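Cross-posted from the bioinformatics board.
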Amino acid sequence: MSKEKKTLRFGKNGRFRVLMISDFHGRPDFNPKLTAGIEALMKYEKPDLVMLGGDQLCGTTKDELRAFLSACLEPVMSRGIPWAHVFGNHDDEQPMSKEEQEEVYESFELCLSQAGPSDLSGVGNYRLEVLEHAGDRPMYDLYALDSHGEIRDYVKYFGLSDDTRFILPDHFGAGCNQASPMFDQVDWYFNTSKRRERELGYKVPALMFMHVPIIECQLAARNPEETGFIGHKRESVGSGELNSGVFMAALQRGDVKGMFFGHDHYNVFQAEYCGISLGVGSPMGYNMSAHDDLRGGRVIDIYEDGRMFHRSVRLLDIMGSAAVRDPSFFEGGDRYYIRIRE
Amino acid sequence: MSVIEMKRDIFCVIMVHSLGGSAERAAPGLEKAVRASPPDLVILNGDIVCGISDPDEFASAASLIARAAGATGAKFAVTFGDRDDKNGLTRADQLAVYRSLGCLTEAGEDDIDGVGNCVISVKKDGKTVLCVRLFDSHAETTAYEREYGSPSRSRLPYPLYSHYYMDGVRFNQTMWLRRTCDTEIPELLFFHIPTPEHAQLPLNASQVGFDGVQCEEVRCQTVNGGLSMTAADLGNVLGIFCGNDEKNDFFGHWGGMTLGVAPSFAETGTAHLIEFSRNDGKPCLHVSRITA
């Protein structure tokens, strides 16, 4: 029973729906509107899997995190929908290590997250598979990667002592110093994907989830016409400017249809670059800087025949003013700065 | 694997690229640069003989360059750059011509992208003391349309660092480096198109000990293939030396390595001189320029 519940399988209509929500920035005393927002999304979108896109961030003890997750994910758990997560840059700054946090996540019955191979950098590099409706052939792979914190994490990853004269730049062309998945993680993805193609005899289409956007998102946002940019970009994309070639790896493997990121609070957009669709931003949190008209999730519909569509769904659209943090003041993009009178 | 004997305490490499459309014009300058500092190895780092469709003409142009490079008896090796595609010959055919002239570059493994991904090992007393690794850095991102079925609108007018759609060393080539590298032996990497990390150097001049000039945007790779990060991680890579730019001429320290971008030889007559030696048993690199 439980095992079948945790198996991801395409529906009768050949569709499987992933809802990505990220950046809860939860605190032990989090705003209950978060739960209401998730409830509305669950009711409205009826996803088959919920993916938490990082920066869940709560408290200093395992119990606090467990209590937070069970409270805010109550709408997911009560419906018996499996869920998974990736870690964000702020999860890294917690007093609790990511390994400890991972234990809490995995203690939930329907959480599909895995710590991943222990020899890889970071915690939570794993693959989920979505099986065909009538049978057991995997038709879609979902890769989750830990995208670490800042670019200086590379120094730690390289295993160098602090006094090594190892210089990473302060100034970037686009001003971004976030990290990205390390080489061994990308290597793991590439080899896993290759091995699966060899074993199964066909290329399994895939989605990739991580917290910090990659620099190609920045590139796409700069070229809205060419990349079919849809959405809002109200701050610079918080991507890592230097990376281990994760986009190039996906391009070379040719299996990744879409890559999805959280991290940005004021950017919610999607664009396509080199045939790979990029979805940035699904901010949900109420205890963080955010715009009321951007708060929401991302719905990713994958189909048994390999097609993939995604769109952002905004709480304001489905909940109306109940989604606004402070009813007396509406926070939004420049043209949304209006006071709402009761 | 090609092997060179290290005869002196110093192993000296001269790197030039973009020799221009006319081998007759470039060859005397190259010979002058080579004679000025007799190197152990001359690396023709891409855009060597360009714009020639006739195979015989190509062979005679290549032999002029090869003769100039070998003027002092040094061995030479080639990597391919974006403009090498503009000849009538494929890269594999061009490599066959160069190899017939004594070039050390080998075609490389079949399952990784590009022609001429190879390692030249430098031996002293029968022991490998240095590896010189060459990559094919391809041409432009238009190749993604052909090879990966990307839509043609993937050519973006506003890339990050430069307005050229440069391809570069790709991810599976980076994996090859990772797979085949012996971290005990120092390595030098050579290829034509700079990585995005090269483009970071002029932005962080004071941090990286920037040595040289930046006169134009760095025509670096558009989609990062992860090479520089991996090389920094490996820890045995002493330097990554690239070309592609016309006037930019700089070195800088990044990630414990020396990154270099050389200017076009046809344009400036400048060659980069990379000298490897061992100081108290520690590998040590000295970089400088020679202008013909």
